[in-house]
Structure formats: structure tokens, C-alpha cells
Amino acid sequence: MIDQIKEKIEDIRVFLNIEGGDIEFIKYEDGYVYVKMLGQCANCGFLDVTLKDTIESYLKEEIPEIEGVINVTL
What CATH topology corresponds to 2-71? Predict the structure, then answer.
């Protein structure tokens, strides 16, 4: 499952990099994918929209076992 999630995150990364952003996989636990948004994405006013409407929707569509995506700020 983790390898599949990482593969899908790599697909997303390409689009985030175009805008100066990035995403890092942290962990998968109890149906939730934990990521850290980096670069321009970390401080973007549209972070919540990108996270829920784009990243979470894509991952849930590709991997139905995923319940949600959580941004981790370390």
C-alpha cells in the first residue's frame, strides 16, 4: 500500500513543482495519508483546497482504502 501511495504522490509532485511547490510522504496510518507540503505550497492561501480537492480526491479515487490526507507541519 505504501509503495502505491508513494507512486501516486510522485504523479502529483510534477504538477506541484511547476508552481514551485512540493509534497513529501510522511506515513500511512489507519486509512490516512500524512504528507508535508513544501516550497510555495507550504504557505499558499489555497493549501486546504489543494490538499482536499486535488490531492485527497486523486488519492482516494486511485486507492479507495484511503480515508483522507493530512498535512503535517513539523
Answer: GMP Synthetase; Chain A, domain 3 (3.30.300)
